[in-house]
Amino acid sequence: MAEITIIPAKERSAEIVRTAAYARVSSDSEDQLNSFAAQIKYYTELLQNSADAVFVDMYADEGITGTSAAKRADFQRLMSDCRKGKIDRILTKSVSRFARNTPECLDAIRELKSLGISVYFEKENIDTGEISSEMLLTMYSQFAQEESMSISRNCRMGVRKRMMDGTYKTASTPFGYDYVDGKLQINPEKAEIVKQIFDWYLSGIGMTEIAARLNSQKVRKEIWRHGTIRCILTNEKYIGDTLLQKRFTTDTLPFRAVRNRGEKEQFYVKNTHEPIIEKSVFENAQKLLAEREKPSGFAKEKSPFSRKIICGNCGTSFRRKSRKNCVCWVCRKHDESAENCPIRQIKETEFQTAFIRLWNKLQAHYKAILTPSLRQLEILSEREKSGNKQLANLRKEIAEIKQQMHLMTVLNSQGTLDDAYFKSRSQVLDKRLLTAQKQLRANLDNADSERLDELRKLIGILEKSERINEFYEIKFGQIVEKITALSESEIRFDLIGGIGFTERIAR
User: Mean pLDDT throughout 482-488?
Assistant: First the structure.
């Protein structure tokens, strides 16, 4: 019989657990318990007597509500430091403080667990280091999400009540008015332009031509377009009335503001402000508009290509037309006259086939095509930021303020620093930190960071997807921003993240 010798396990010395804390605190609360310094003090005192834990940093987002983690700068900084291996454990007050969106909460927790980092939620007494914690976490994060949705519903109910009793104040200011002391007041110079637009339209001039005239006269800095003119011609505010709830926020996550096409009730309030246009003039314009937009050869059903196809020759948008056997898209100028633009109509199925080819190419080769571009953009962005003296100074100021807070907290917990002085000084540092962090976020929030986020999103979509054999509207809408018809046989897809690809059309 084989002889078995048991080798006892070696006793390992206790490892130092690098512990961070995350909170969402109020930026304008007078309650010292909600201040940044108070949070640092709480967690410092909590860990100061521990022989195997050290407090790394306090991460906190001030006064930020909602369901998306993307809007929380310090939460993103926390996740970044975790990925860099700076943190072993995270402490937070509750699930609702950590996240209010169940999928994002679970995604973050799973990523942290894969990095060997645990999160402890004090209120719920959940430690994600335990195997059985995810079920409890799902339940509590669902509660937190429902709480956020309940708050959103209550806010919408309040807005709806104000609409019903006529006390709702619209935030939009139509061209021709100024917003003064909570009321719309006529801007004489702009009002004359509005009157001219109505006069031109009722005299038979089309909206595209009206836009061209205003652009040639260099009226306003913005470029006038067909859609801009149509918005003015159909806006009831010019006769002194207000139609409320033209748009509404969806009831489910993710919350989106969408056009109200009859899904929700609307409220028409008369005589809310001084009119620019006489009611009879406005009504005649609506009759003429309805007459000109009567259904004809144009397909009126909603299409994923609507407002996305641009003519590469003249820059005019394409319109959708129904034929006997197919649906086509044609340049508006070419449709008026072939002499205006040489690019002829293209079948909708050809756009769909070209997108299928593009999707499959990207899905198969995104790592070779997109990932290097992302990395290069990240390097350029970091290089630009590192060379930005203002950013460097703000980061230095934030680090110094936090260092002062840590030092004051330690001295106060040891009894060396007077409580009254600690409280008053903490309030000053809190305000300085908030100002510096807002300035830093404002400097970081630029077009480059948006482009990087969109490119990461594009890569993420392709990572989770497969090849397709048919056209999917959702996939198209997720990644395509614009299509440019370079000719009848060549089109370019402009994708999110500022990436463009050309596809041939077989004819």
Answer: 91
Confidence of residue 113 (pLDDT cuts 50, 70, 90): confident
316 domain-assigned: no
Q: Which amino acid is at 19?
A: T
Burial of 9 (0-12, 13-18, 19+ CB in 10 A): exposed
Q: Is the dihedral of CA 129, 130, 135, 137 positive or negative?
A: negative
CATH of the domain at 222: 3.90.1750.20
Q: What is the mean pLDDT of residues 212-224?
A: 76
Q: Are strands 118-121 and 89-92 parallel, antiparallel or unpaired?
A: parallel
The predicted pLDDT at position 473 comes to 87
How many angstroms separate the CA atoms of 218 and 498, rounded? 30
For 95, the domain range is 17-158
314-351 pLDDT per residue, tens: 888 898 887 777 889 999 888 888 888 989 899 999 99
Question: Would residue 301 count as lying in a domain?
Answer: no
**145-177 burial code (b ≥16 CB/10 A, e <16):** beebbeebeeebeeebeebeeeebebeeebbbb
Nearest-angstrom CA–CA distance, 97 and 144: 9
pLDDT tens-digit series, residues 365-420: 888 888 887 777 666 666 555 556 676 677 778 878 877 777 777 777 777 777 78
Sequence-ordered list of residues with C-beta below 8 angstroms from that of 246, at least 6 positions apart, any chain: 259, 260, 266
Q: Are residues 204 and 80 in the same domain?
A: no
- In DSSP terms, 329 is beta-bridged to 320, 346
CATH of the domain at 128: 3.40.50.1390
Residues above pLDDT 70, as percent of the chain: 71
Q: How far apart are CA 73 and CA 67, in angstroms?
A: 14
pTM of the shown model: 0.38
Dump strand ranges (E) for 265-393: 267-269, 309-311, 318-322, 327-331, 346-347
User: Is residue 9 assigned to a domain?
Assistant: no
Measure CA of the first residue to CA of the last residue in the chain; give whole Å: 82
Cβ 304 vs Cβ 476: under 8 Å: yes
199 within a domain of the structure (yes/no) = yes
Phi-psi region of 349 (alpha: psi -120 to 50; beta: other; left: phi over 0): alpha
How many domains does the structure of the chain reveal?
3
Which residues, 6+ apart, have CB-to-CB distance to 222 below 8 Å? 228
